[in-house]
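Q: Joint fold for the lines below.
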Amino acid sequence: MPRARKGALVKCDPSIKALIIQIDTNKNDIILEELDDTHLLVDPAKVEFIKSELNRLMAQNIYDPLDEEEES
Amino acid sequence: MSGAPFKATVNEYLEDLPPQVQSRLYTSPATCLAIYRLLPKLAKFFIMSMVFNESDVSLRDLDRWVQSTAKFQFNEAIKSMKSLHLLIEGHSGQPFMINLNSIFRSSFRNALTGGEVNNSFGNVVDDEHEVVLPEMLDQYAANKWESILHYMVGTPLTQTPSRNVLSLLQHSKLMEENGTGELQITNEGFQFLLQDANAQIWTLLLQYLRLAETLQMDPVDVLNFIFMLGALELGKAYNDSHLSDTQKVMLQDMRDYGLVFQKASNSTKFYPTRLAAMLTSDSMSIRSASSAMNSVLTQGTASNTKTDEPPAAKDDADQDPGQVGTTAQIIPDGAVILETNFKIYSYSNSPLQIAILSLFVHLKARFTNMVTGQITRDSVRRALLNGITADQIIAYMETHAHPQMRRLAEQTLDKKIELDPNCKEGLQILPPTVVDQIKLWQLELDRILSYDGYLFTDFDNSQEYSMLSNYASDIGVLLWKDDKKRRFFVSQEGNAQVIDYAKRKLKKK
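A: Joint structure:
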């Protein structure tokens, strides 16, 4: 008998998927299921949290010309 | 450049009116003259040829006037006249015989030859003691209009526009309330800011017309008043005694937009401003709101300039590409130079221009005639989060690009074509690196897409799986599927339908 499971489908590129998995390693409460390279089933309540975490992680990798100027 | 919500021009609004309303509109000579001014050039020509000619005209005769290369313009002209019901079937009823709308014809004749104009051009009051100078009117109009635009870009202001203006801005979705109850500029609002002043006024007035309909105001009264304003003379006082009650209410609103000036709110006299005179003028060369305002301001303040000249005339001069850059005066206000290192320089000291820039630029320093800043990930993200799109930012910088940048781009393109005659590249006014990066920053914002819904798993056999997944994709709710592992994902909305279907089908077995 088929089963329907509530969740949020997240579509992203593999690199972002890796980041989400990394975010999930702390508590293991975000990802419900890994579907394929570009799709994940996650807890719908955590979608906003994922987005903000991703922003934070990606901001670390951005070169900001203003920072440098203000330091020098 | 402008988005879909602003495509609606006044012509389109007029075309959408029912024929009865149009006929009532055409009884006013001032309105007929204004509509005539809004028509395409060829249509004007045809109307002129028919206005003093009672008998039917053959469409083929009109066609013969037009060169075969201009068929498109001909069809446009005929279409615009037909949709306004200015052109009607001839009296004889024969095919291809046409005539001018008789109401329009007689009103338009009156407008041209000065017959019974029924006060539709306003009543001039001569009062030697209370002369209002055009300079003062310009100042007033610029003040009112700029304060609306300023309010939209969110410059900290001492004066907020009146409640009427705010509700109109909200009604037209140029601004919307955010969580804390404050008004915030929307995506449409930003597009609005990028338009020229004439288009902006019309956008607001069209919204006003829509609002007026819900308030049971007669659109004929409203339109007549707007068109009358366009025909009034700057610096003259007009009496409001012949206005209908609806129009008197409108007068108050128009005062808030800076289209007319009154010394006191209960005064019976009103003075149209340059913004009103611009309404039906067909010179569209005013580039942007702030530059138009600036030219109004400089004309108003400089004592030796000819104040009778419409603001458009000044802007005509500064667009001559051969001369630009040689003298400082003819560089359009707000000209933007964008470097490949994301630094941006804008030659402007209009607070409005600067405020618009600050929507997406990290501004660093301000000098007497220019501001400098830098486009950063944060500044662009802030703009993107406010609903402004990357394309809008790029379009804005492109239209405001400094003539030097344009020339440089042309030179580069010429060189490229010299090297490779088949080069298909277009003119790249802005450095491509910056353009691409802004687009990338936008893409970065939606790195993940999420959909709420249900994952269907644990199918007993592939038949069951394909039956349900096909059904889901047929009704368009299937978001993802994996045929090998026999699972698929449907959207929240479609879930109930799929489950119903599953129950029906699976029970039968």
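Q: Anything notable?
A: Chain B touches chain A at residues 341-342, 362, 374, 376-378, 444, 447-460, 464-465, 468, 479-480, 482, 487, 489, 495, 498-499, 502, 506 (CB under 8 Å). Chain B has four domains: 10-113, 124-279, 335-445, 453-507.
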